[in-house]
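Hey,

Quick one before I head out. I ran the complex with iron/sulfur cluster overnight. Inputs first:
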Amino acid sequence: MSKLVVSYGIEPKDMVREALAAIGAASTINSKDKIGIKPNLVVDQPAALGATTSVKVVAGIIEYLQSAGCHNIIVLESSSIGHSTARAFSVCGYDKLAAQYGVELVNLKKDKTATVTTADLNIAVCRTALELDYLINVPVLKAHCQTDLTCALKNLKGCIPDREKRRFHSLGLHRPIAALNTALKSNLVVVDGMCGDLTFEEGGNPVPMNRIIVGFDPVLVDAYAAELIGLDPSSIEYITLAEQFGVGSADLKKAEIIELGTDKHQPVPIPTSPLARQLSKYIDARSACSICYGSLIHALARLKEDRLLNQLPEKIKIGQEFSGRKEDGVGIGACTAGISCNLPGCPPKAKEIVEFLRANITPVASFAAASSPQ
Ligand code: SF4
């Protein structure tokens, strides 16, 4: 259970199939199982905007399942309050996917519900989700304005009716999210970490991260995901509560993490997000890989939240053109090993970058690149 497979690259369908094979997903599924794939279609926006699960990721899962003899597959979702799931299925390409692979799309906004009592809460849950034999949770790796992170554990909120979603907010989200995960078990998690959002679950500041993360334990997956975007897992209450409720373990030190991906060193695309463009002014990137650059952008977003950006002593160096160069400065990643103040890793996680920069920040009067107000 305490195993994660992380696949880097730019072809999500292939990466998903490889990661599922590497973790041995088929050995945990009976070919007769009714399998539900739960993407995150919180809004009706294409995945490139950072909010929704790429249809290519789900296509990779379906191809893997069908090649393993599993054909009783549905895709189920209830978009956020005020958003049409039918429209999200259409805009995000799921209508075409369903026709191509012969799978059914289930709009959970129209589903019946059953009440489950768990962790001192009565929770209304969509029946179709409860009646599955095997649930594949397919969240997007992104930040969230209220819970800091939204990934596997929070994605199951799309399996409850809208009235229950409203109540979850009135209860502060964390405890009901953790409780919901005791009522509804994710058998497998496949995180779309290709392009999530920097700050908000409904997109707007997409950052390419070019990775797929696969695991069986949603608590472990979320702990790993938190570190990827620069957060301490123990600071996210619903991760801690889910661990207390027995959903899984957040102990990354005990986890086996397998990394795949010969296609990992993709160049950084031009940032389309306004916030990423603003943060890029603090970076001296020379032939940086997008997996490394994305981590640095997430780390800088965390420092911005703490109003520490203007204390950075200079632009941060990152990228393959720094390999072999010896000079003063602050460098991120193995390529900048010759820079006087260096954080190793290929790629380092955003949490490691945040901790490294915090430890090495010295107050300065001004930071030439930082012309934008924080
Ligand atoms: S350390 Fe260098 S090679 Fe490794 S991911 Fe970062 S930029 Fe790419």
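The pocket of iron/sulfur cluster is lined by residues 265, 288-289, 291-292, 319-320, 333-335, 346-347 (CB under 6 Å).

Talk tomorrow,
K.
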